[in-house]
Amino acid sequence: MYHKTVVVKPIIESAVGKLLYLPTYSLDLDLIEYYQFKVKDDIHKVSYLFNNFFDAVFYTLQCVITFSNRAIYNLHLRHHI
């Protein structure tokens, strides 16, 4: 925690302007946590459809990349009807 020492703090504040300490963990400040959870959840939902875990990961990431997450839910629902 060198950035909190007495010597370093004035140097950082003179260069940057103000040193702001963020909480150690905050979902609101770290949006990647939300999306990571969403992707992991989507992988879990479709994993039973694939023989290979990596195929499930690839399929899910393709849905995320193409902004068609709805396809995951459609595929999931289709196999439970």
What tags apply to this protein structure?
81 residues, mainly alpha, 58% helix, IS630 family transposase
Write the topology of this structure.
Elements: H1 8-16, H2 31-46, H3 53-65, H4 70-78
Description of the structure:
The protein is mainly alpha-helical and 81 residues long. It has a domain of 56 residues. Helix content is 58%, strand content 0%. The protein is rod-shaped, with a radius of gyration of 21 Å. This is IS630 family transposase.
Q: pLDDT average, as an integer?
A: 73
The N- to C-terminal Cα distance equals 55 Å
Structural class: mainly alpha
Rg (CA only):
21 Å
| DSSP helical segment count | 4
Q: Characterize the main sheet.
A: none
Q: Based on Cα principal axes, name the global outline.
A: rod-shaped
Following the backbone from N to C, one meets helices and strands in this order, namely HHHH
Protein name: IS630 family transposase
Provide a compact summary of the structure.
The protein is mainly α and 81 residues long. It has helices at residues 8-16, 31-46, 53-65, 70-78. Helix 2 (31-46) crosses helix 3 (53-65).
